[in-house]
Amino acid sequence: MCVSHYYKAAKDGAGDMTSVRVGIVGIGNCFAGLYQGIEYYKRNPGRTIIGLVHETIGGYSWKDIEFVSAFDVGANKVGEPLHKAINQYPNMVNWVLEMPESNCIVKESPILDGVGLFVQNRISPVKGRPTSVLREEALAELKSTRTEVLVNHLPVGSQKATEFWADVALDAGCAFVNCIPVFIASHSEWESRFRDKGLPVIGDDVKGVVGATIVHRTLARLCDERGTKVERTYQINVGGNTDFLNMKEQERLHSKKISKTESVQSQLRTRLPDENIYVGPSDFIPFLGNTKLMFMRIEGTMWADRPYNMEVRLEVDDKANSAGIVVDAIRCAKLAMDRGEKGALIGPSAYLMKHPPKQYTDPDARAMFERFAQGEGR
After folding, report:
1. Rounded Cα–Cα distance for residues 375 and 250 (Å)
2. What domains sit in the chain, N to C, each tagged with a CATH number?
3. What pLDDT is attached to residue 1?
4. Which end of the chain is more exposed for a tag (fewer CB within 10 A), N or C?
5. pLDDT band at 313 (very low <50, low <70, confident <90, very high)
């Protein structure tokens, strides 16, 4: 069903214009934090909603998000209802112990390159059926559930798997939110395909609310704008969940390092030589669980060539840090679908993602985001 036909059906009563029908690829810790966080706020109506730009965007609340389709490779998740799948090993988010029952059953996803070497002993994939068969089943599931926005939460390094799901989203008529550092929204050929299909795409590689990259780029720009010369900088990150274990495989980190590094480089008037900047994951420390530690250093000179340096240590719950951003991205994608906007959403991507089609300063990106929310541009 094409976008315009879906929108007409919804207006005529065949769809629900008050909800945002979402599909999820990858039922891991990131999604568990998103799913449980929404339920947490529903159960605590007196709480101030923290971690969102706005409680409503274009008339859509965080409460309007409905998860109607889900896909994974884990044998202990496939075939399970969503509320049970999120608690399966190796997931470790346990903010809400008793989730309401879900009618959404997790369907099998092709493995492709979605399971890295270091996590094979933690994930027991379903014995994969032919990719062509799984593709047809995925299309049927997205259409039968009337999924509008498909969110990619696959592990870092899942190049082929992400491209598979982006292609499925195009054929199913879904908007695509790409939360990982595989370049879809920021890749001209993929962006053109979404534009030609009349579908919006947001990406790539989700920023945290107050995460390592947003802190690093903000401080780097501060130093630059105050007239100092930034000469060297690094950012290293450690954590204890499956994401960090997966990233021990260096071959899976090529796009991740580009995404994080360019996010910082883009904030400097003079680009640093490659040998003077390092931004990337460093190691896996099991007992940290979902806690992420970031260590950042900036070295430079100021008046009369006097040196200065700063060091920052940031400790966050890695999943809480991204969930609110994804809630905003989902609602922006739905709003774009309603408006018939197509291709990469420039403002939302610049504000919510590390590697958007075009980098802006965060104040400028925020202003563009606000204009988009008000219907004044992509």
Report:
1. 42
2. 3-207+320-373 (3.40.50.720), 212-317 (3.30.360.10)
3. 32
4. N
5. very high
